[in-house]
Each structure stands twice: as C-alpha cells, then as structure tokens.
Amino acid sequence: MLKSSESRILVTGGAGFIGSALVWELNRRGFENVIISDKLCSDEKWRNLVPLKFHDYIDGTDLEQQARSNPDSLGKFDVIFHLGACSATTEKNAEYLMRNNYEFTKVLAEWSVAKGTRFVYASSAATYGDGSLGMDDELEDLHRLRPLNMYGYSKHLFDLHAKRTGMDRRIVGMKYFNVYGPNEDHKADMRSVVHKAYGQILNTGKVQLFKSDRPDYKDGEQMRDFLYVKDAIKMTLHLATEPLASGLYNLGSGEAHTWVQLVTGIFAALGKEPVIDFVPMPEHLKAKYQYYTCADIARLRKSGYAEPLFTLNDAVKDYVQGYLVGDKRLGDEAL
Fold first, then answer.
1. Would you say domain 9-181+226-253+296-307 falls under CATH 1.10.10.10?
2. Which sites bind NADP(+) (predicted)?
3. What is the pLDDT of residues 214-230, one digit of tens each?
C-alpha cells in the first residue's frame, strides 16, 4: 500500500499515456520514490517523462529478464502498477501479444503476491467484445466473454488466469474504457479521436468520422464511454489504496456519448462551428468495431470512490485548451 511518501512504487509503462499520468498524480500527492519501466523506442513518449519526478528508470526488456530470472534483485516494492502493454487493438502478432500482455503479467503478478506487494494492473473494456453479454465487472463466468481482437483476448486471458488461480482475490484489475487526455500523442493511430480531430481541425477546418454500417445507429451516433485520463488515474489510485478492493473493476464515466457529441465539444473549445464529414469504415475494422460501450461503475462506487467526474465538455475543454493548444504535457501546467 501507499503508506507514506517514502513508499517504493514500480510503474510499468510509466512513459506511456496512462502510466505517465499516474506518475504525475503521484508526484502531486508527494510520492517521488517511483521506479519507471518502459520501452523507449523511436517515438516521442520520452517527452512525457521530462516534467515528472522519479527515482530511477529501467528498460522494459531488462525488467522482464530480471523478473523472470532473479526478481529479488529488483528489491521490495509497496505497490506495482502494471500498465505496460501493447495496447494496439489492430496488432496481429499474437505471439508478441501473448508474451508481452499475458505471460509477463503472470510473472509480475505471481511475484507480487508472493512478496505481499499490492499489484494493480490494466485489463481492458476490450475484453467485453461487442457488449452483447453486457459489461458487468461482477460477472462470475468470464469464459462467456468473446473479445473481438487479439489485444482484448490477451488481456482477457490474464483475467481468466487470475480467476482460475484465486489470485483475483489478492490483486486489482482495471477495465479501462475509452481513456483520452494529455500525454497520448505518441500513440500514433491508437490516439483518441480528440487528439486526431484536433489535428484535423487545425489542418482542414473539419473532422472525419466513420459512417455507420448498422441501421440502428445513424452516422456518427455510435456511442462510447469516454473517460478523461485525470479521472482514470484518480480511480486507479483509489483502488490501489483501498485495502478491501480486489478483482476486476470497470473504470469509465458511466455514461455513453456519441462521436458527434465528442467532436462538437472540440469545435466549441476552439471557438469554431462544427464541420463533420462522414467517411466509409475500413473493411478490416467492420467485424471488430464496437458500436456501443458504457461502463457500469457501481462496483467502483461501492468500493468507496465518491469523486465527481469531469463532464464530457469540461474534460474536452481542459484537454484542448490546457494541453493540445501549446503542445503541453502533464506537469507543464505552470510553464
């Protein structure tokens, strides 16, 4: 648990989107004894680290090797936030996803449990598939779920492992819904629509959204549960510090909004009238596209989380005006 400012914390994926936001919030709460692990390649996510305060950095490959061969050499942690993973829903290399998202998570989780370390990991709303079976984080028979892509399945597989072994009673898994906000610009095509639309508006004055291929949804009225990253990390830290919290939790806003509502908020934040073009959905996405997601966050609320959430328009305004305009990262606010 996070007992004091001296608590030793490991954040995997700590240079990434949610990971760096988590470290930012930890810093705001006085925690700096943080070890960040990630894989810094040729993208720009290293920039997320610049405003942050942390004790040390370890390459993700080196962490995996040590965790597999000699985990005690890593020392004792009070909490491990395992947010590092391949998060591309379009990734087709199943072997890579199994090793990176499933097998490594098993290694870290089993070591954490053996050492009495609090283990908090990122699952995903992608495990719910098309949502036809609901999006219930209290579902007992996880085998009923049918993820639509290999990313979702790699996350689902560890959820199943934790349930089967009884480990789920000692760890916390977070089913993040559509998280967006500062520090995501390195994610290429996996960036949120807010980030993509902002660039489109600056370059063309308009936004492109996918047409609907279903008669029950009009163009642009496909719906998502959009969760601002500042809310996501507060929820994550609540679960990490709530001693009775265990198992899976939906982390979302609890409301579904259309893509049109989302991009209308972006235009409003920029003081512009909405201009939207609807374009055909690519063939490779059609069979794997979620038309509706909405998190039931009753279990999160029952755990004691009582914080108010950003409204969609307030969150979009904060993101656009506070960070996208000026190309700022979390931690740059005072500059």
1. no
2. 17-18, 38-39, 45, 83-87, 100, 155, 179, 187
3. 999 999 999 999 999 99
